[in-house]
Amino acid sequence: MRIVWFSVLLVVAALLLVACRQTSAEKKVYTPAEGIAEGSAVMVAEGVSSATGTESSELPETEQGDVPQDDEATDDSSGEEQESAEDAPPESEQPDDSPEDETVDESQDADEEIERIPASQLPSRMSHIVKAMFETNKGSFIIAIYPEIAPQSAPHFIMLIREGFYDGIVIHRYARSDLVQMGLVSDQSGTPLYPDDPRKAELAQITIVDEPCLSENTDMTISFAKPDAPDSASCQFFINLRDNRRLDELNYGFTVMAQVVHGQDVVRSLRVGDEIGNAQIIERDMDPSL
């Protein structure tokens, strides 16, 4: 009996062993490196990306390339932008609507149009020169008038001299080491300073339009004085006693029309109350209109 029972136990044990081996084979789990079908590496990468927000760095570049990138997702919009850029006219043909660029261009054009001639070069560079002598109680001085750089101011100044406007005129302003000024014919109340010569008051009413300063308000150059208003220069003029180039553009610009070429010491000695006895044209160029 014992032998029979022992044999039965051996058979049962053998059957159990076979059953365990079959169950173990059916439940085996493969790692990603084993038994994965071709192309499933992309699916793994997509799974990692969706879970972590990043691509797997362990994948080869060729496999990573199979995963859609952000720039691929926007190909349509990128294409539209490229086409619009290609269809646009060349940069040189596009209109420039920038106000700042226009402002810069205007200022550059203005600088190119206004070429200021240094006062020291006026005698040699001017082809049309009219000279006048002013006799004062301190002595005489000679000025050169330049119509080329002051086509409005210079002819008007010449006309006033020929009309005898400055004969008997008193120096009414002296700014120490700055300028000396003359040509005032009435006081602040409008009362004529030369009632015996009404012609002076009439000529003082004639004004000229503003024009750019093409030279420099430097020592011994001459410009018309004027109030703070456009096109208001009439008959008063001043002689610079130093570098006053700030006046080239101040108050609509004080246009240089002449300069003292002889008798500079006489001009520097003039003070308020000194008198111009006589002013006359002594030499002119070949232009018959001057």
Topology at a glance:
Layout: H1 2-26, H2 40-52, H3 61-64, H4 70-73, H5 75-87, H6 99-113, H7 122-125, E1 130-136, E2 139-145, H8 153-162, E3 171-175, E4 179-182, H9 198-204, E5 221-224, E6 237-240, E7 256-262, H10 264-269, E8 276-283
Antiparallel strand pairs: 1-2, 1-8, 2-7, 3-4, 4-6, 5-6, 5-7
List keywords for this structure.
alpha+beta, Cyclophilin, 2 domains, 8 strands
3D architecture notes:
With 290 residues, this protein is an alpha+beta fold. The chain has two domains: 2-84, no CATH class; 119-283, Cyclophilin-like (Cyclophilin), CATH 2.40.100. It has ten helices and eight strands. An eight-stranded antiparallel beta sheet has the order 3-4-6-5-7-2-1-8. A hairpin with a 2-residue loop joins strand 1 (130-136) and strand 2. 21% of the residues are buried.
